[in-house]
Amino acid sequence: MKTLYVNVRYLIVPVMTVITISGLYFGGIYAWIGVFLFGLNTIIDTLTKDIHLRADFDSEGNSYGIKAFQYSVMYLMLPTFILLQIFLAYNLYQFVSLEAITAIELIGATLSCGLWAGLGIIYGHELSHNKKEGFKVSRAIMALSGAAHFTYAHVYNHHLDLAHEDDPATAPRGRNVYAHAWLSHVGQSKFSYELESKKLKKLGKYFFSIDNKWLLGYLYSLPSIILFVWAGGIIGIFALLLVWVISNFLLEALNFMGHYGLIREHGKPVEHRHSWDNDNLFTSWFFIEIGRQCDHHVRGETYFWELDDVKGPNYGIGYFSLFILTLIPSLFRKFVQKHLDHWDEHYATEAEKNIINDLYPTLAGNEVASS
Amino acid sequence: MIFSAFKKKKNFRAQISPSEQEITINKGETLLSGALRSGLAWPHKCQVGSCGTCRCKIIDGTIRPEIDFNYVLDPADVASGFILACQSTLKTDIRVSVNLNQ
Questions:
Q1: ipTM of the complex
Q2: Which one of A103, A313, A336, B75 has the fewest CB atoms closer than 10 angstroms to its CB?
Q3: How many Å apart are CA B55 and CA B74, to the nearest integer?
Q4: How much is the pLDDT for A59?
Q5: Which residue among A131, A159, A202 places its CB closest to the CB of B67?
Q6: What is the mean pLDDT of residues A4-14?
Q7: Does any domain span residue A365?
């Protein structure tokens, strides 16, 4: 029974994605169901903000998670997200060629698709840490959002340079989520481009080569572009762009929340204190434990169902609730300042305090006392 | 009994040089995970194949690389047998050289 509970609880996104696809199929008001579910999740997440659970292990320390089941689900999410795009294309075709649906329905379908394609990044992220075929599925899922570069940048840049200035995915203090979304996306793509350039040069191969994973990643997005141009022409391009903007914004918002303002000394190992945890019940189950960032960044290839609360820095609320706060930068800064003050006082090393004072001499509240 | 010859081997042995320790690596387990599980102070940092801290040299035996080592190691080093322990599962028993006192 415990095994069933531990494994089934991570099916919220798969189930809701299928419901969103059904909404796109039935059309009308149902085209908005993906947006409605996103709002509903925000409410549930906020209501469950104080419920925090530990990972589940039996008396011998073995996890109840079933790898074959969880991997099957994650792999199945690739065709599921492809279906999501196909059904949006179907809506586009109905709008442009048949004039069978209204603009409001098309907007609802596009927003629904964008939001749930964006939530697909949790599988792209998890599989990026599990090599061979999992890595390829991760690339394919991310390519549906035009972000196949993420898989390489996440492993070779983010996990190595976390909380350094040279990690585009770590947001420095004072930056807002809108600026971060753009800077992090472009920064990670640039990193992936340079990574491939260096690798190809070392191997004596041309930049335009089938071994160039950066280029290949963008080519993987071509089927989506062709589908949307075919289904909706210029409107199709705008719809796909909107889907990609929304999904990439959600991806970068997760990066933004996961490490905002944290500092690590160059050359020092990544420790629990270099990430923020968001691990209330709903966030943990919905985002397949991606909110257990503190443990994840120290044990990068640990399966998500084995990640645990390591008593690292914790926002105390879930991703949905925090995401809403990030959308209003002044509100987010006010919320996060007390957490940063606590981090500076209780987690930062002397060297990290010095870096903070060097980096942020003018930011209010950042006069960090060295003992 | 006769069919036991067809059974797939589950675990492999890794002999560590120059410390001459021997550890067991489970099927599907990375060399680094097995080494850490056995209590060896194998140098490591990121555990996701990006920092190169767990690099070591295969003297004998075969491994299965989980990622392309050329992103982190020099191709000449890869050709001469250097691997990343955190991204290597074993295909045979191996003998590997690593400095455990880093």
A1: 0.78
A2: A103
A3: 11
A4: 85
A5: A131
A6: 96
A7: no
- Crossing angle of helices A222-259 and A319-326, rounded to 10°: 90
Residues in chain A with CB shorter than 8 Å from the CB of B67 are 131, 135
The stretches in chain B having pLDDT less than 70 are 1-9, 102
Q: Is A279:A261 a contact under the CB 8 Å cutoff?
A: no
pLDDT for position A124: 95
**Cα radius of gyration rounded to whole Å, chain A:** 21
| A199 belongs to a structural domain | yes
Q: A98, exposed or middle or buried, with CB in 10 Å at 0-12, 13-18, 19+?
A: exposed
Per residue in B13-30, pLDDT (tens digit) is: 999 999 899 999 998 889
pLDDT tens digits, one per residue of A305-346: 999 999 999 999 999 999 999 999 999 999 999 999 999 999
- Mutate which of B31, B37, B48, B78 to test chain A, going by most A C-beta atoms within 10 A? B48
- The number of domains in chain A is 1
Residue A190: which of A229, A156, A143, A224 has the closest Cα?
A156
Domains and CATH numbers, chain B: 2-97 (3.10.20.30)
Query: In this structure, is residue A368 part of a structural domain?
Result: no
Among A145-149, A203-207, A358-362, name the one with the lowest average pLDDT: A358-362
Q: Please give the residue range of the domain that contains residue A337.
A: 2-359
Task: Decide the pairing of beta strands B11-17 and B94-97.
Answer: parallel
B86 closest CA partner among B19, B17, B36, B41: B36
Main-chain phi, psi angles of B15, to 5 degrees: -95, 125
Nearest-by-Cβ selection for B50 from A156, A199, A299: A156
Query: pTM, whole model, 2 decimals?
Result: 0.91
**Beta carbons of B67 and A202 less than 8 Å apart:** no
Residue A149, amino acid: H
Evaluate whether A342 touches A261 at the Cβ level (below 8 Å).
no
